[in-house]
């Protein structure tokens, strides 16, 4: 056992180490529809500097197979790999990613499952699972190692066309036009139809996603047996059903599935990411696209790729054709600061958004305002983040209408980790409204100026005398009102 004094010292040392640990540079984004996605293996975060034996080449041990099964069967496609510690392994079907490592890129990831031994299991297979190109791929530069399987799923025979349909069936009454499945690119015009030969002609009623067509969308034009959609966009995707109203209890119905291919749209929640040297920086793009877009990150026109121990690229699937893409720089250095770009591209088009990674302090936000003791001034309080020590603050304020700013330098106090607060009184206010702006500087430069904070020194002119103290004692009601005005200003600007 260690003597208690040394033990105590150790505990303190550990605690201090804990405090000094770099914090993450980004707040957690809170997307409601965010599906959790798995953290990449921790081993990626370790610098691999050991000069051990040359690593064995990665390999796929399984053999290619061709399977033919009946609809409803369970299919297991094997892909046993070795020496893939430093490589990602993906499953693809027709060159579309199904699984990237253990992360699903398929919507029905309960039915199509990547097993722990890296086999791909397909439960309740259907004809649409058929493909000559199920590929298991060890993603190695410059050329991946692939294993391709073939799968043919025989659909369950519906009633053979030869046998006569039952008398009361409505099958075949409606012919859909152009087909039961319509894929269309954004911006085009499509015409859907349900045609019948029965006499007298039944009235055709249309439903979109089980809702009666209401004529609310000016681009969806209803004309009896036909629907025309002009300037198709992604909101027009869905099931279009038509019902032949013939007065019977079981009117015939048909449906057309409209699938709109649309240009990717990138959403960035944080356009400026504040970080510092040797800490982790994280940038995120959310992409909505159909078909799924391919996302690439760029800095200064150069593509960024996964780099063991320093750069991690994450992908995650979210609801509603959205994917989440994270670029992590594990140990940020000076050269990493700058403009980043995430680019999303699919067969229809592309979108690009930029994110700035910077070491300067974040934009300060007002966090409080209160009267000074002599009631002739106001104490303003700001909050900001900086991942390196603050060197100076600059507080400027002026009365509305004045051209000149008053500039003061609030004192720099130690922050708590990367969180800093600034508090400074502004004295001798005149009646009227004021605005104040705070900027902060650290080793990397000046922050963006805070949003101007409005406050008022608006009290009756007799109180604007030098002797503010005695005036305040005589008229506490007015003072209270003044405080309320100031406070309400402070909180509306939060
Ligand atoms: C992988 O695991 C599944 C389920 O446990 C099993 O059926 C299959 O045979 C395994 N494949 C290989 C190649 O070990
Ligand atoms: C299997 O898939 C078919 C459609 O392909 C579906 O109708 C059926 O309910 C599924 N069965 C199970 C057990 O999930
Ligand atoms: C493996 O598949 C990838 C992606 O489809 C392709 O780019 C690559 O050339 C293939 N590698 C080999 C050796 O066939
Ligand atoms: C799609 O088009 C409709 C009607 O023309 C419009 O109201 C809607 O905002 C569009 N949606 C998108 C995502 O562009
Ligand atoms: C994804 O987009 C396609 C085509 O626009 C659409 O058919 C499908 O319903 C969408 N999926 C989700 C989950 O919104």
Automatic annotation (TrEMBL):
<dbReference type="GO" id="GO:0030424">
    <property type="term" value="C:axon"/>
</dbReference>
<dbReference type="GO" id="GO:0008046">
    <property type="term" value="F:axon guidance receptor activity"/>
</dbReference>
<dbReference type="InterPro" id="IPR007110">
    <property type="entry name" value="Ig-like_dom"/>
</dbReference>
<feature type="region of interest" description="Disordered">
    <location>
        <begin position="25"/>
        <end position="56"/>
    </location>
</feature>
<dbReference type="InterPro" id="IPR050958">
    <property type="entry name" value="Cell_Adh-Cytoskel_Orgn"/>
</dbReference>
<dbReference type="GO" id="GO:0005886">
    <property type="term" value="C:plasma membrane"/>
</dbReference>
<feature type="domain" description="Ig-like">
    <location>
        <begin position="264"/>
        <end position="358"/>
    </location>
</feature>
<feature type="domain" description="Fibronectin type-III">
    <location>
        <begin position="360"/>
        <end position="461"/>
    </location>
</feature>
<feature type="signal peptide">
    <location>
        <begin position="1"/>
        <end position="18"/>
    </location>
</feature>
<dbReference type="InterPro" id="IPR036179">
    <property type="entry name" value="Ig-like_dom_sf"/>
</dbReference>
<dbReference type="InterPro" id="IPR003961">
    <property type="entry name" value="FN3_dom"/>
</dbReference>
<dbReference type="InterPro" id="IPR036116">
    <property type="entry name" value="FN3_sf"/>
</dbReference>
<dbReference type="GO" id="GO:0043025">
    <property type="term" value="C:neuronal cell body"/>
</dbReference>
<dbReference type="InterPro" id="IPR013098">
    <property type="entry name" value="Ig_I-set"/>
</dbReference>
<feature type="compositionally biased region" description="Acidic residues">
    <location>
        <begin position="28"/>
        <end position="50"/>
    </location>
</feature>
<dbReference type="GO" id="GO:0050808">
    <property type="term" value="P:synapse organization"/>
</dbReference>
<keyword id="KW-0393">Immunoglobulin domain</keyword>
<keyword id="KW-0732">Signal</keyword>
<dbReference type="Pfam" id="PF13927">
    <property type="entry name" value="Ig_3"/>
</dbReference>
<dbReference type="InterPro" id="IPR003599">
    <property type="entry name" value="Ig_sub"/>
</dbReference>
<keyword id="KW-0677">Repeat</keyword>
<dbReference type="InterPro" id="IPR003598">
    <property type="entry name" value="Ig_sub2"/>
</dbReference>
<feature type="domain" description="Ig-like">
    <location>
        <begin position="166"/>
        <end position="259"/>
    </location>
</feature>
<dbReference type="GO" id="GO:0007156">
    <property type="term" value="P:homophilic cell adhesion via plasma membrane adhesion molecules"/>
</dbReference>
<dbReference type="Pfam" id="PF07679">
    <property type="entry name" value="I-set"/>
</dbReference>
<feature type="domain" description="Ig-like">
    <location>
        <begin position="58"/>
        <end position="148"/>
    </location>
</feature>
<protein>
    <recommendedName>
        <fullName>Neurotrimin</fullName>
    </recommendedName>
</protein>
<dbReference type="InterPro" id="IPR013783">
    <property type="entry name" value="Ig-like_fold"/>
</dbReference>
């Amino acid at each position: 056992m260690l003597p208690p004094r040394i033990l105590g010292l150790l505990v303190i040392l550990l605690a201090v180490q804990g405090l000094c640990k770099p914090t993450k540079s980004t707040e957690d984004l809170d997307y409601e529809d965010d599906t959790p996605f798995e953290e990449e293996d921790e081993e990626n975060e370790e610098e691999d500097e050991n000069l051990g034996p040359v690593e064995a080449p990665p390999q796929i041990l399984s053999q290619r197979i061709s399977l033919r099964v009946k609809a409803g069967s369970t299919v297991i496609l094997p892909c046993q790999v070795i020496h893939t510690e430093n490589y990602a392994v993906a499953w693809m079907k027709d060159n579309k990613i199904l699984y990237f490592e253990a992360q699903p890129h398929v919507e029905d990831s309960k039915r199509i499952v990547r097993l722990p031994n890296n086999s791909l299991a397909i439960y309740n297979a259907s004809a649409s699972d058929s493909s000559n190109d199920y590929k298991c791929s060890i993603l190695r530069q410059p050329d991946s190692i692939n294993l391709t399987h073939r799968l043919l799923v025989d659909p369950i025979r519906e009633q053979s066309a030869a046998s006569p349909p039952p008398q009361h069936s409505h099958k075949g009454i409606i012919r859909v036009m152009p087909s039961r499945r319509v894929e269309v690119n954004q911006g085009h015009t499509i015409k859907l139809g349900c045609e019948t030969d029965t006499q007298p002609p039944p009235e055709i009623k249309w439903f979109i996603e089980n809702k009666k067509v209401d004529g609310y969308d000016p681009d969806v034009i209803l004309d009896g047996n036909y629907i025309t959609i002009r300037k198709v966009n992604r909101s027009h995707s869905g099931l279009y059903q038509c019902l032949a109203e013939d007065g019977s209890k079981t009117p015939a119905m048909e449906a057309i599935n409209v699938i709109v291919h649309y240009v990717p749209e990138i959403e960035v929640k944080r356009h400026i990411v504040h970080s510092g040297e040797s800490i982790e920086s994280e940038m995120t793009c959310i992409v909505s696209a159909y078909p799924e877009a391919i996302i690439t990150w760029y800095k200064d026109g150069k593509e960024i790729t996964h780099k063991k121990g320093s750069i991690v690229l994450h992908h995650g699937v979210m609801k509603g054709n959205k994917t989440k893409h994270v670029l992590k720089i594990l140990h940020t250095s000076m050269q990493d600061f700058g403009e980043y770009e995430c680019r999303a591209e699919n067969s229809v088009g592309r979108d690009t958004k930029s994110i700035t990674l910077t070491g300067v302090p974040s934009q300060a936000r007002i966090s409080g305002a209160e009267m000074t003791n002599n009631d002739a001034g106001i104490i303003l309080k700001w909050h900001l983040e900086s991942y390196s020590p603050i060197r100076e603050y600059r507080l400027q304020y002026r009365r509305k209408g004045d051209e000149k700013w008053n500039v003061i330098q609030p004192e720099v106090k130690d922050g708590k980790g990367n969180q800093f607060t600034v508090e400074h009184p502004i004295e001798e206010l005149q009646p009227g409204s004021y605005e104040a702006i705070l900027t902060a500087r650290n080793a990397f430069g000046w922050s963006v100026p805070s949003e101007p904070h409005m406050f008022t020194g608006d009290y009756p002119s007799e109180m604007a005398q030098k002797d503010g103290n005695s005036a305040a004692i005589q008229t506490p009601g007015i003072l209270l009102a003044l405080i309320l005005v100031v406070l309400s200003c402070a909180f509306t600007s939060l």
